[in-house]
Design a protein that fits this description.
The complex is a heterodimer of chains A (142) and B (755). Chain A is mostly helical and 142 residues long. Chain A has one domain: Helix Hairpins. Helix content of chain A is 60%, strand content 0%. Chain A contains four helices and no strands. Chain A is elongated and about 65 Å long. Chain A starts with a helix and ends with a helix. Chain B has a two-stranded antiparallel sheet with strand order 1-2. Among the domains of chain B are: 268 residues, no CATH class; 50 residues. The chains are: A mainly alpha (142), B mainly alpha (755).
Amino acid sequence: MEPLLACLVGLLFAAALYLMLSGVLIKFVFGLALIGNGINLLIFAAGRLELQQPPLIHPGSEILSHPVANALPQAMILTAIVIGFAMVTFLLVLLYRTYAYTGTLDADEAPFQEEWREDDSCPEPLIRTQQDIKRLRRESEL
Amino acid sequence: MVHTDHDLLTRRCRLMGRLSSLLPALLFILTCRFWPAIVDGQTYLFDAPWLPSLDLSLRFRLDGLSLLFALIITGAGTFVSLYSSSYLGGHRHCGRYFFFLHAFMLSMLGLVLADNLLLLFVFWEGTTIFSFLLIGFDHESKTARENARQSLLVTGGGGLALLLGILLLKIAGGSYIISSWPAAGEMVRQHHLYPFILLAVLLGAMTKSAQFPFHFWLPNAMSAPTPISAFLHAATMVKAGIYLLMRCHPLLGGTPAWTTALVLIGGFTAVWGAVQALGPRDLKRILAYTTIMALGILTMFLGGQTAPALTAAVTFLMVHALYKAALFLAVGSIDHSAGSRIIDSLGGLWRAMPLTAVAVGAACLSMAGFPLFFGFIGKEIMYEGALAKEMYPVFAVTAAVLANALMTAVAAIVLFGPFFGSARAPRQQIHESPWTMWLGPLVLGGVGILFGLIPEWVSRVLIEPAVRSFHPGPEEIRLVFFHGLNLPLLLSLVTLCCGATLYLLRHRACRLVATVVEKLPATFEGLYNLGLSGFMNGAGLLTGRLQNGSLHFYLAVIVSTVILGVGWPWIGKLSGIFGRWPESIDTTALALLLFVSGSVFVVVTARKRLAAIGGLGGVGAGVALIFLLFGAPDIAMTQLLVETLTVIFVSLVMLRLPAIEQARRRTVRRRCLDGGLALAGGLLLTSLLIGVGSEPLDRSLTSYFEANSYLAAHGRNIVNVILVDFRSFDTLGEIIVVVLAAWAAVTLIRKPMEP
């Protein structure tokens, strides 16, 4: 079964890369979501798929009495799913805010082009002292 | 209000300086305690392992040469700390200053005491770094920063060369233990790596000690505070290279290559430095060039083999440390009191600053080599050494006489310029500096006179032990007050006469030097600047090319790097993995795979938001079902929940974003490129995964969890037990990530950003 799943993982990766390379930020997030799924499947398949019994110890017995699916990749994937979800959600909000700020989601457009500063002067930091923090807070409340 | 703050700062700075000058003072006294035994020919050794596998040990050894350097370092350090306490006034970064100063002093002490070459290198780099920090102490000035960088690059580059030399020395069979060198010298000198070792060590020593063509950093280092110039760039740090040459003398010295390189480079540096000293009008720069001259003389004499030449080097080292530190400190006082150190705007200061004038007088007469002063003794032995046969006597004598004559003229300029002649400012405005500032120059100048009167004693207790520690031999080492009427005395007279003539012609000489320096077609400093700007421009160009702001470009570079880096070695092993298809295919699984593939296709090709969201949800749900099918109900459940939430969030956000069909479409060419990259990436992963599947699986961790899940952790669901028990800290980290992401998202949503 693994070779077939490997093909699916390859498909997910290829689709994800194609979307991420598009330069449209919303597609980038789609690609990220797909790549997350692909990686989870990759870990899953790397732990072998022959056994279809979930890794549970039956009530009454203290040790496994029958062969079960590999528990270790499952634990890893569980963590990975949640973290991937957190990242996609954060990126979505960032995207929303970015669009509100720049008015575009095309990464090749002007607002996303970093400027190459010739002089090596640093911009003034906004926050230097406690007073600055208070001032910024006041301004944001207004 | 501001005034009080400043007063407070001044007081604190003064206290800090005076207290911290106790450190070098105590170290000086401690060193003095070892002195009598060293004179009797004993040495002290401290040895503790540090990194035995690298032959690096904390091995310190005190012998005659180390003692001499330690006395100079701690003695000058005491006066410089004391002096700085007043010189800095209420500087904001007073604490930083004293920290750097004393850290430098300890590095320098470590350097001259280390008996392990690697340990010496560690301290060597320490002095480079603290010198850099001290030159750039006034870090708000661009010049200071640039000069600090210059000295760091030049001496740091030399340090790297030195490290190379150290490693080559080890390969050539030499030992890191410096005190074992006299015995191993012959073997290393015969080794075929000897020329490279010599070159590397000389590069290290000559960048540090500002020898031509690396001399240019030293005058620029004068942007350091004046006491720092006195301490680092006159008395101690620039002598580190000289110290290294002295230590290496029994190991690497004595060959024609050594003698030729040192005598020629040193002699040329001495004369060229002394000539350039006539040019500038800034007292500090004048002194910097005379320091280059002194370092050149020292290098030249270390090229010699005989006792007189080496004695001359050690004696002149002391002479120079005494008068140069005094002069620098005095120039700082002048700058402090009269507000300028440009020689043309100073004059008649001896009435206002009598004590400083006396100190400068003593130092300058020693520098000019007048009889009765220690400088005279140094000059006599210098000529005696230069007349030795093995080191090109004609060249050496000419260089020494020329450099000393120029030195005499410069000494006169430094003495007469600011202190005599007509006063340039009303007298009441200028006053003598506080005692902390005149004490150092006065004592150092006074010692110069004292040593000149008792040269026999000095040579017995200081010079001889120092010379013997790197030139053991039966020859007599003795300084005498008066040598009698001989050739060196004649040369001294010639020197004084030439010096006086040069002083009288100083205005013409100054113009001449300025013209010559200006007319030079290329200087090594220019070369350095060219190299540096070329490097910067190249780096800028490269960065501009690589960091061009295009997300597509970045991703394409990353993806193709991974594909090439992983795929290239993998391609040879591909043949074995295909052709291992499963005998039976589960129809449910196949249907699921097809479903997910279809959903992926929908996401990629979607031109409507709804289709994209639907496809995304389809992929998530399909993957969840695959998990369920292969015995992972926990992940399947989580995946379903998460995918549902993701679809909801994506829908919410996409409602506020422009429709996908409005987005610019890729050109066909770029689509082919992206498609190719994506396909290659996908194929690579598929083949990798198949390859992984054909390798045997290590289930030992899983078996451990399976065996201990119930017995040790009392849980029947092994996946859950791993998450909340065996690897619970990982889960805690995961929760923190989720909380942080949620926090950041909430912040972004809540606070509208000002455009």
